Amino acid sequence: MENGTAAVLRVGRDDLRRLLVGADFPLSVPLGPPGRWRRVWQRARPFLAPVLVFALVGITIAGIQYLTDTRGLPGWLAIGLGVGGTLPAVLAPVRPLLAWRFGYPLLYLGVIDALPDESWPWSPVQIIAFLFVLLVLAARTSLGIAAWAGLLSVLPAYLFVPTHANAHGVALLFLAILIVGDQVRRRRQSQRALAEQAERSELEQARRAVLEERTRIAREMHDVVAHHMSMIAVQAETAPYRLTGLPEPARAEFTAIAGSAREALVDMRRLLGVLRSESAAPETAPQPGLADVPELVDAARRAGMAVTVATGPEPEQRRAVPEAVGLAAYRIVQEALANAARHAPGTAVRVSVDAGDRALTVDVWNDPAGPGAGRPGDAAGPAGHGLTGMRERVRLLGGRLRAGPTDDQGYAVTAHLPYDPEPTEP
Predict the structure, then answer these.
(1) Rounded CA gap, 28 and 189, in Å?
(2) What pLDDT, on a 0 to 100 scale, did the predictor assign at position 29?
(3) Rounded to whole angstroms, how far apart are CA atoms 411 and 344?
(4) 86 within 8 A of 60, measured Cβ to Cβ
(5) What is the mean pLDDT of residues 310-329?
(6) Is 402 left (phi over 0), alpha (psi -120 to 50) or beta?
(7) What is the pTM of this model?
(8) In this structure, are residues 144 and 193 in contact, taking their beta carbons and an 8 Å threshold?
(9) How deeply is 375 buried, as exposed, middle or buried, from its count of CB atoms within 10 A (0-12, 13-18, 19+)?
(10) For an engineered disulfide with 379, which of 143, 339, 375, 390 has Cβ 3.0 to 4.6 Å away?
(11) What dotted CATH number matches 290-418?
C-alpha cells in the first residue's frame, strides 16, 4: 500500500513539475479538421487566416475598451491586460502549457480595480480566452496535468470572487471544461489506437498474403521442376541401353546421375508436403503455360468480356519459353483479366504477349471503368491477393512489373519476364 501511495505521489509531483516548468506538448498534426474535410480546410485556410487575425484584433480591442470604460484603467495598463488576456488563446493550439503559464498569472493581475458589482473580477475576453486554454490543455495533455491546472486555476476564484456562490460557479465551470477536454483527449487516443491497430492488421494481412502466394508458387513450381528432374532420371537410366559401347565408368556415372535425380524428387515431394496446407487437396492436373493463354482468353470472352489478343513472332521463329516463365505469364494474364472483370466490367481489354530472344513481355490494358467502379489493381485475383501474386511471380524470375492507372484513366499491367535471371546491381 505504501509503495502504491508513493507511486501516486511521485506521479502527481512529476505532473505538477511538468505543468510549471516541464517540456510543452507541441502540435503533432496540422491544424484543421480530419478526414474528408481536410481538403476543404486547406483550400479555405489562406482566406481564414486574415479573418482570424482581424477577429483576434477586434476581441483584444473590445477587452481593452472594457477595462478602460468600466474600470477606468490607464491606457497602458488596459492595453497590457487586454493583450495579455487574449494572447494565451493564440498560444494554446501550439503550446498549451506555455499558454496556461502565461494566462495563469493574469488571473491575479486581471482583478486590478475590479468593481464590487462585477460577478467575476475579470474581463469577459480574459474569461473566454482562459476557458479556451483549459479546454485545449485538457485535450492535449495528461489527466494529471489537467487536474493540477484546474486546481491551481480555481484558487484565484476563491480569493477574488466576491461571493462563495460565484466562486463555486467558477469552479464548476472550470471542471466542466476540463471534463469536456479530457473526453476529447480520450476519444482522440481511441481513434489513434484504432488507426494503429488497423495499420498493423493491414501490414499483417499483406505479409500473410505474400507468404501464402509464395507457398502457392512453390507448389506450382514443383510440377515444373519435377518434370525436368524426372526427364533427367529417365534419360540417365536409359542411357546405357540406348547408347552402345559405353565404358563401365560412364555407366556408373549415368547410374549416379539417375540416383541423384530420384533423391532430389523425393526431397521436393517432402518439401511440398510441408508447404501444402492441411486443407489443400492434392493437385494432379498439369500446370498451365503460355500455350494455354488463348484458351484463357476464350473463357473470358464467353463470360462477356471484350478481349483482344496480340502476339509477337510465331512459335517456330522464337526461342522456346521456359515452363516457369510460361506459368508466370499465364497467372499474370489470368489475374489481370479477373481484376478487369470485377472493377471495370464491360470495358475493352487488350492482352499482348511478346516472346523475345531473352525475355517474355506480357501487357494487359483495360479502358476506363464506369462511374462507381474501382481500380483493377485493388482487386484480388484467383488467389485472393491480386497484385501481390503478380509481384511475387515476377520477383521469383528476376523480372520487372509495372501496374497502375494510364493517362486515360484506364489500367495497365506490364510484366517483363526474363528467361534467365537478370543480374542485380550491387
Answers:
(1) 13
(2) 54
(3) 9
(4) yes
(5) 70
(6) beta
(7) 0.53
(8) no
(9) middle
(10) 339
(11) 3.30.565.10
